[in-house]
Write a sequence for this structure.
């Protein structure tokens, strides 16, 4: 964590150091065996393959909707409504949640940002605020029951049914949705510290 926050290593490099450290600890404690290493490698391979297949499917679906122009069409329709700031934020939140059911997070960001950013600036919000709102909205979309992208990853890791995972994610979904509405009503919650920093 120190290396990542200090800018000395990427998350992948830090994870590699963590794996090496675990191997060294296991070696010196004499708790590391060939069987344990084999089981760890097999588990990692299964998990990585599962996540990889989910990502491939999500990217394929995202590309299809992108070629059809559905995200841009929806964003343009919202722009033409001339809504009040709070109504705009509420509709954008629902819009992102809907897209999260059918698209991968980065694809949502790339396809909708050019249209939604001018709307947000015109409504009186800042780019910093919108960046935080987008992170919350996209992560919220990824745990939208029952088809959120992250729900399938958790389901694959735990082996539980998608219904159980969806129920478990519901409280977090509600909390994140409420927080998104709170920062829409009180944008100072997320802009206060950046304003202090940039005003110096």
């Amino acid at each position: 964590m120190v290396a990542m926050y200090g800018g000395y290593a990427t998350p992948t490099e830090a994870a590699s150091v963590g794996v090496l450290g675990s191997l060294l600890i296991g070696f010196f404690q004499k708790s590391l065996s060939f069987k344990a290493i084999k089981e760890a490698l097999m588990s990692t391979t299964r998990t990585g393959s599962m996540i990889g297949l989910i990502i491939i499917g999500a990217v394929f679906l995202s590309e299809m909707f992108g070629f059809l122009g559905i995200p841009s069409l929806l964003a343009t329709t919202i722009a033409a409504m001339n809504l009040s700031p709070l109504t705009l934020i509420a509709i954008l939140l629902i819009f992102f949640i809907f897209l999260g059911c059918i698209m991968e997070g980065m694809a949502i960001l790339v396809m909708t940002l050019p249209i939604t950013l001018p709307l947000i600036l015109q409504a009186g919000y800042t780019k910093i605020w919108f960046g935080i709102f987008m992170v919350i909205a996209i992560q919220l979309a990824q745990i939208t029951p029952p088809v959120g992208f992250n729900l399938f990853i958790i389901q694959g890791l735990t082996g539980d049914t998608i219904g159980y995972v969806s129920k478990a994610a519901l409280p977090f979904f509600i909390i994140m949705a409420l927080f998104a509405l709170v920062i829409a009503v009180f944008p100072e919650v997320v802009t206060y510290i950046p304003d202090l920093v940039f005003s110096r």
User: Anything to note?
Assistant: The mean pLDDT is 80. Residues 34-68 form the longest helix (35 residues). The chain has one domain: 47-198. Residues 47-198 form one domain.
